[in-house]
Amino acid sequence: MIKRAAGLTLIEIIIYVAIMGVMATALTMMTVNMIQLKSKSLVMQEVNSSLRFIADKISFEIKNAKSLGAIGASSITLNTQDSTRNTTIFDLNTGNIRMTVGTSVASLNSNLVNISAFTVTNLSSGTSKTANVNYVITGNYKNAGGRSEFTYSATVEGSSEVRSK
């Protein structure tokens, strides 16, 4: 009788290596996909929170303004009740929404977000009983590397009425 040595045959080893290779490839692909999804999610959060902050700030300032000043295609001037602030101006300048209060200028969007469009429409009635403004802001993530998971754009639209009328 021939004794067989304990161990694995060459075929068993090849099958084992093949199964482990398939599992390792699947696990690697799943990990890479999860990392890309997390990156995409962070990009979306950055753009959406920046746009939401700008929209909330514009809405707050319009509601608390004394009256509307000049309204351009991509800017709005608000006359304020506070004499130290005099006017508040929102405008689009080189990819940033700027808020100018008196002589102070501040960019409202994140440095990772580019504002590609800011349109303002005066919806006030002809009788001047109401002063309403509609605004649309479009922003996108600054994707210097061109990677697909860092490509995202969003648009926020809002309207507000001056309360003091």
Short synopsis of the structure:
With 165 residues, the protein is α+β, with helices and mostly antiparallel strands. The protein contains one helix and eight strands.
Structural overview:
This protein has one domain. The model has no long low-confidence stretch (mean pLDDT 89). The protein is built from one helix and eight strands; from the N terminus they run H-E-E-E-E-E-E-E-E. The strands form two sheets. A five-stranded antiparallel beta sheet has the order 1-2-3-4-5, with helices on one face. The protein has one helix spanning 10-63, and strands at 65-72, 75-80, 87-93, 96-101, 104-107, 113-122, 132-141, 153-161. It is of the alpha+beta class and 165 residues long. Strand 4 and strand 5 (104-107) form a beta hairpin. It is rod-shaped.
